[in-house]
Amino acid sequence: MSEYDSHEHLSVSCGKANGWTVLEVGGAAVVHMPPEIREVIMAPLEESHRRLALDFCVASFLDSMGLGLSRSVKRTSDYQGWLRIACCSPQTLSVFRIGGLSQAYEIYATPGAAGRGAAI
Known about the structure:
Layout: E1 4-5, E2 10-17, E3 20-29, H1 36-46, E4 51-55, E5 59-62, H2 64-73, E6 82-86, H3 90-98, E7 106-108, H4 111-116
C-alpha cells in the first residue's frame, strides 16, 4: 500500500478495519496539497480494494481541498466500490455540513464504526 508524509504536516496512510481499507488523513488537508496525495488515495482502488473508509479523525484541519479528496474517492462507484467517511471532530464534521456533503456521504464517528456500518 502507498503512504505519503510531507514536511508540511500532511500525511495519508493506509490500513484495515473490519475488512475495509482505511485511508487515514493526518495533519492539514488544505488547498495547497501536493498531487501525490491523490495518487496515494486512488492507489487502493486501482489495486482492487472496493470498500474504502476515508478517515479524517486525526486531521488537524480540513478545508475545501479535503472535501475535494472526498469527491475524488467518491469515484469508488466507478470501480463498483463503496466509500464511507470517518470523522470524529465536530469542526471537521461541520465542514462537511457547510459544504452540503453530509447528505452525500455515509459519515461515521470512527474507522471501526465505518466498517460496521454504525453511522452517526
